[in-house]
Write a structure and sequence with these properties.
homodimer, about 200 residues, alpha+beta, Glutaredoxin, 4-stranded mixed sheet, 10 helices, 4 strands, about 10% strand, Thioredoxin-like_sf (chains A, B), 2-hydroxychromene-2-carboxylate isomerase (chains A, B)
């Protein structure tokens, strides 16, 4: 039986972008199915007293992260344009990702949002930007309105509660067979684990 | 000309242990010289309001780190025995590392301390443990007393000030040609960078 890997991502997260751009191809090569799991880090950070990204709270760590991202994007052939402001508000995008997942287009939509945000430096809280991503993922425009339905709002709340129950503390995170892996640096280990169970 | 790579390590740091165990061999294979740079994270953490390791301050991150270390040690064939208490007080060990470096035995002594701390779970603030590490590194017992000389105390203070000037915020960190790389996960990238300049 092919393994499954949960991919927990947050749209504001720079390293989630890196994983989103390569996870589907890497998983497919190992016969693993990716479960796209949007969630919000805000409530998790708030619970430990953080009001913004740790990359803003800790400036040296922030300066390092931006340079690290530049280097990694060069090595992976990705254009990189940091969004302003950072972090972006990914609430609408995360709700849309749940609708896109129901429509079988999670990977395409999520990647399109990340490209807009981190390759083009666009504002992903802007509905026009999201509509463009929606179209690029081949999704029908009338499906977009579902993102504001109470059921989707509740579903995103439950995603974040599930992330907390899984003891997630950052993004990207990967879960397979009860094992948690954190960070784009652990994607290969997570895939190996998923393949082994 | 062969490149040089600064290896900034803190004895309390779990991931510094992982890098210390493999950096010399990996660097030698690329013709790179390792500069062993002990420093203390305490003052750097204190400057941002932290009174202990972030792995203690943020329990979910701490739980993850211990499991991650277990998995990595298994994959690298390293015995793993977390020290108690964590973090260990590495002040004496860091001063001794400077003396050992002057004597040309930094790598051997530093690895011996890390093995005592993280493979055997010993207390590295214990002078008897450090004397054992000193002997294992082939260093003369009478050299040990130099670690309490004012010049060495000053030298360690200056190491930590230099780390802050380099914008370091954690360990292990690697510096080559003005580029900073953070974390055992970036050792290969740091070596590649050092080899390219």
């Amino acid at each position: 039986m092919a393994g499954r890997l949960q991919f927990w991502f947050e749209f504001a997260s720079t390293y989630s972008f890196l994983s989103a751009m390569r996870i589907e191809e890497a998983a497919t090569a190992r016969g693993i199915t990716v479960e796209w799991q949007p969630f919000l880090l805000g409530p998790i950070f708030a619970a430990q007293g953080w009001t913004t990204s740790p990359f803003n709270l800790y400036p040296a760590k922030g300066r390092y992260m931006w340079r690290d991202m530049e280097r990694l994007c060069i090595s992976r052939g990705l254009q990189f344009h940091p969004p302003d402001p950072f972090p972006q508000n990914g609430l609408k995008a995360a709700r849309l990702a749940l609708v896109a997942r129901d429509a079988g287009a999670a990977a395409a939509f999520v990647r399109s949002v990340y490209v807009s945000e981190f390759c083009l430096g666009q504002d992903i809280s802007d509905s026009a930007v999201l509509a463009q991503c929606w179209a690029e993922a081949g999704l029908s425009p009338d499906l977009m309105t579902r993102a504001t339905a109470p059921a989707i709002k509740t579903a995103l709340f439950e995603q974040t509660a599930k992330a907390q129950a899984l003891d997630l503390f950052g993004a990207p995170s990967f879960v397979a067979g009860g094992e948690l892996f954190w960070g784009d640096d652990r994607l290969d280990e997570a895939l190996n684990w998923a393949a082994s169970i």
